[in-house]
Amino acid sequence: MPQWEQTLGLMSGIGYIRMEVIPGVFQLKASPAAVLHAPLGETPMAPSVVLAATRAGAMSSLPLMGRPTCMALPAAVANGTVTSAGCTGNRVYTDIGEDDLYIVSE
User: Fold this and answer.
1) What tens digit of pLDDT does each residue of 31-56 get?
2) Angular region, 13: left φ>0, alpha ψ -120 to 50, beta rest
3) Which helix (H) or strand (E) covers residue 8, if one does?
């Protein structure tokens, strides 16, 4: 039995995931040549994906924020870490990329 089937069996057996949701789980089209886990400032090459994490209890209960982007600052002070998609004005004047967003923390 392949390792992924064993892992899914274990995860299902302990109630972590239901087998009927497996077809909807995102998967890579091909296995990556390499996977690197490192602090962002210490990566030896430009990353394809960045995973942002915070310490337990630091996340906000607020949903992804849209506009205005500047609202994320007081929201972070009041609620901890917040995520903002960035408003149109912010995107125009800062040249933030289409695939970027903000994670704001006090």
Assistant:
1) 888 888 787 788 898 887 776 655 55
2) alpha
3) helix 3-13
